[in-house]
Amino acid sequence: MKVIIMPQIPNTIENAIAKMIQEHFDLDENLEQVIWVKSATTPEIRLIQIVADTLPTGDVQSFYFGPSDDIPCPLLIAQITPQEWQKVLQNEIPLPDDWSLENYKVFSRG
């Protein structure tokens, strides 16, 4: 697992994602981490937001946001508790279909 504190990313899409994640940190003081679940098979951007005061559901449900001027590909965002994230890491809570932790980045509040 790589822990990255708001990295400088050269790719334009990756820069847009990093900027969006920083905006989410600025807007939500309870947002602890954002996990970017990268995919080699789809252009979707898949994010898991770790928020201490979110309601636990026992699963990872993502919400769809269509392409925009800033991010020209579909965006899927799930929000879970830190405890649920630990269960995801331990394979006790599955990720949505076609999501994998084979290639992901962790963005932490700086």
Keywords:
110 residues, alpha/beta, Beta Polymerase, domain 2, six-stranded mixed sheet, 2 helices, 22% helix
Describe this structure in words.
- This protein has a single domain (3-108), classed as Beta Polymerase, domain 2.
- The two termini are 18 Å apart.
- It is 22% helix and 28% strand.
- The protein is an alpha/beta fold.
- It has helices at 12-27, 82-89; strands at residues 3-4, 31-37, 45-51, 62-65, 75-80, 104-108.
- The longest helix has 16 residues, at 12-27.
Query: How many E-type strands?
Result: 6
SSE order, one letter for each helix or strand: EHEEEEHE
The oligomerization state is single chain
What characteristic shape results from the CA principal axes? globular
Radius of gyration: 13 Å
Mean pLDDT, to the nearest integer, reads: 88
The CATH class label is Alpha Beta
Give the helix level as a range of percent: 10-25%
* Number of individual domains: 1
CATH topology: Beta Polymerase, domain 2
The CATH architecture comes to: 2-Layer Sandwich
Strand order of the largest sheet: 1-6-2-3-5-4
The largest sheet is: 6 strands, mixed
**How many alpha or pi helices?**
2
How many angstroms does the end-to-end distance come to?
18 Å
Low-confidence stretches: 1-10
